Amino acid sequence: MEREPEMTRERHPLCDRERPFASDVADAIEQLLRRMGDGDAGPTLPVVLSRPDIVGKLIENASISIEDGEERYKRPSKLVRAALEERLTNCLSNSSVFQAGYKRYEARSGYPIVPVTSFFLKSFDNSVREYLDLMHDFEVRMSLPRRAKRMRGEDNAVLRDERGNDVVESGEIAGIVVFPANSKAKLLCAWQARIANMANGSLKNAVAMIERARPDAQSVENLKELVRPLAGGLSRALPRPRREEE
Description:
- This protein is mainly alpha-helical.
- It is 50% helix and 10% strand.
- It has helices at residues 22-36, 51-62, 78-93, 97-109, 118-123, 128-134, 137-143, 186-213, 218-227, 230-237; strands spanning 47-50, 64-67, 70-73, 113-116, 149-150, 168-169, 175-178.
């Protein structure tokens, strides 16, 4: 698979900055995968990385300074490490840095990446490959990111915890799964189908917006003719998940 070229620019070390960039997250993912690999063969995919895994690598990288042109690692104290962990976790949880970082690594490496929720991270035991092969539709839906929603009981009333706060089912991103390029895993296929549906919807909305601005233009009619077959083309191009054994 041809990899997308990445723009390189000089940047200050993470230890000299207050917050990480998307490129720092991409570097952390690459370094973690390289650490899991076997020499030049690379990691055995698929691999699961949780957000704490990436935060831990960022802390390690933030503890490296450049002195006289050489990298020097200084082990942070427990107090400093706790402060760094809280700051970096908050940054990756409440900004787009995490998403931009794994997308940057995806473009850099050519490996498909699927963001997953805490449901997925709590569900698989030792072998992620085995769990991916055995996933059911419900597990796939619960594993993919979604909007948080309030939980309701049998009477449709909002459930509350012991403090009176609404019980919220969270679908936020808690980690990523890095797949090999030829994977037929149901989770990856479902994620790519969602992306294709979103792209198709965005394209239709863009055409409608142009049509409202230029209702009599022949070019708009030509554009609509070009767009109509794209939905079917996207659908046909998507990989088909491996069939479950009878």
